[in-house]
Design goal:
The complex is a heterodimer of chains A (about 200) and B (about 750). Chain A is built from seven helices and ten strands. Chain A is α/β, with parallel strands linked by helices.
Chain lengths: ~200, ~750
Amino acid sequence: MPCHAVKIFATTVMWLRPSVLALFLFVLGLPHHSLAQEGQPAREAKVKVAFIYNFAKFANWPDRAFETLPHNSFSICLVGKEPLGNLLDQLAGSKTIKGRTILFRKNPPQHDLRNCRILYISSSESLRLDRLLKAVAGHPVLTIGSAEGYAKRGAGINLFEKNGKLSFEINRKAILRSGLTLSSELLALGVLVEGEN
Amino acid sequence: MLALGVFLNRLIRRILIAYFLCLSPVILSSSAHANEESFEMILELPLAALMKLEVTTPSSTSQKLEDAPGTIIVITKQQIEERGYVNLLDLLQDLPGIDVNQKSVEEYYNQVSIRGNVGNDNFLIMQDGMRISSPTGEHIPISDNFPLYHARQVEVAFGPVSAIYGADAFTGVINIITESAKELDGMQISSTVGSDEYYHNYLNFGESLTPRIDLKFGGHWQSSQDPDLSKTYTREFQDVDALDTSNNIFRAASAREDFVAGTNSYSFYLDLDINEKLNFGFTRSFLSHPTTTGVQPKNAIFDKDADWNTLIQTYKTELKSSFTDTISGNTKLSYSKYTTLPSTKFTNNFANFNAFKFARGRRWQLDHKVDYKTNGKHQLSGGVTLQSFNSIPKTTDLPSEYDPDKEAGDQGLFHIGTSNTLPILFFEQDFQNYGLFVQTQSKWSDWLSSFAGFRYDYDSRFHSTFNPRVGAIFKYKDSTNLKLMYSEAFLAPSTNLAFSHFGTFTGNKDGSNRFISDFFRLPNPDLGPEKTRTIDANLTHKFDENLVLKGGFYFTMVEDQIDIVSGPSNSEFIPGGIITSTSTAKNVGRLDVVGADVTVEQAFNWKNKKLNYWISYSWVDGTLKKLGGVTSNPPVTAKNKIKAGFTFTYLNDYFITPKLIWVDETNHFVEDRSEKVSPYALLNLHLGVRNIFSNSKHWQAMSAYLSVTNLADVKYFNAGGGSNSFGSSPQDPRRFFLGIRKSFN
């Protein structure tokens, strides 16, 4: 039940003219520093793409890896539902990797996955992971995932969140099987994990 | 008094428009100077620096379900897809504590009862935090007019939440959260065909136009002839004489028409987001359903034009403000309009087998909310709401369609059966509501947190309401979580309930030269709000990551419940007429409900396969006390319900979901009917393949689905809703639906 103070307040509000209330709202509603900060999910996406870009800089592909690609190009593919497509598009439009133009493809057909030089596998693809990894087995593809257990199951690099920050783990055997090498800086910063097989 | 209401309404509307016009340039200019940490800057950072960047913080992370104040169920996009939920009603049907009675009411098609309290107007339906159900609180049908093709998740909060949302958050709040443009990143189109000429199509598009501007929009279109129930339920739909209210034959059994029950719907939404801070949105939904729904054939004739046509539109602009690292704000300005379209037509005996209806509700609303967070442990929120309403309540039976281009008083319409002599009255209403709320949420230790708050509302019709909410959350390790809550809420009397009136004249006159009517529903302008108080205990225990047990217990009291009671005899409510019997709405009821829900969810994961199952049991009991000491069980509610199902997924792309619903005998809406609706078990099946052609360049993002409702093809009934309706309304036989979906990225 409303106490006496609430009743007084109620009476005040009852007689408060709408215009005064609206003025109060208007003052409150001024945006001040609005639009100055972006949302955290957007930031996570940006940081993930920056990680992918850095991995590309610190990984080495054999020369034969680019023979099947359009001239002087480097292909990055995204599989699944993580909302990184726009940012990878932006990356492709503004940066190069190893002096090559970046070609970005989202959800390419499975038989085309082998032509990706970086394959990012979204967390939504957990049950399909084995099939995706099988599709690129033996091809120079750096597989990057973002879900618990991806590296142990055979992805080359897996991003994970710890204490609100992103880190990554590396499955060295998977990298070697792809014919790729990683720089010592990358190996030093990542957590090394053993694969399940 | 009316003139003052109109004046206030106009004044507030002008203020709101001025507010919007003043604010917009400020918002837009500030966006140009935004000091954003750009993508380019992040790209240039070395790995070691990237690893130090925070991507989620305690203050920005969505609140964990177990920490949220309230009993909340979240259904994800994946579950929506794998369980085959096309619209909100499909989803509600599978949730514990909810009774869904379909095809049972002429005006609003179906009835949803949450925790023993029936009423489609008893809970809010929101999309991305904005109310998309009727702004003036009318009973509305819940069906394909609330599609889920665009939903990232649906959150269903049980219990009274007026302490935050104000009026009508009485039994719960449903929030449909749509996928972001970035998540969509392209376009989806889908087409489904099914039994009984069912067609359902949708398009959904979302993309970042620039790094700062996201656009998404989508729409659906659906039509269906629906099953011919007269073939399945021959006893209920046998050809009988159609009788008027004086039991005269209007149409003889030998001349009865074919059964028709088609529906159609469409919806559209658009959302423009600037830097995740400024948002413009629009929604529009339409449903046409038959006004012969659930009516016994002797009381109505079937007519393909006898439809109830509901249209709801909402426009909003929202601004999220960050004052400091710990203080943020949110301002919303919205306009919403509900219309029962003039083409709405009744062909029952109350309407002399041919009459039209019209209703319209409009609301301008301004909300401002401020959040203050300290060190992630305490949060204080407060806000104000300013609402201005205009309503033309549901009209009486009209001899021809209402002309929305004319003022209500200029319609020139006369009561049916009065030889165009007794003019029809319209009760256009202007009213306002002002609300203020304060909420606190505190984490005192690892095992104890609490929340408390209240909302005060002043409505120009029924004055003030005060709704508190308090609760405590106890945690034991990460495995067990107990919430204890007390909350209150109020249900504003819709103008529909307060002012709707209907009935017809016989065409005959009495000795005083007055036109005679056998029956009329009369308005009650003094109708007050219903009030509810709920005690709620909710326990969640995780045996491990894959096995969860949830249990809830609640006790709810509803006072001043609105009921339709007998009105004065020989009323002269319509000047020049005499009405022999009447009814009217009054705050005379009291409902006490006690109930419990138990749910077990478990997942089994293998390398390429996954199995999730759920099973819930709901029990609810109580007493509805009505005028004169008449008591009954909670209407349109079954005492026991079991809902279960599982989804088996293989390689992410292949899935199958059988679902079972068992509903114990259900109490009728009309309590003096001695029989109850028989128990039934309903089996539904949904299966699908995603990425059918995973190796095809053009067709790889193609999915296909098959749904079968009422797989066992059982005859079953749902609770009916009115005096000329079936007490047990026949339901659909087995139906098949086959759909495809293609994504373009």
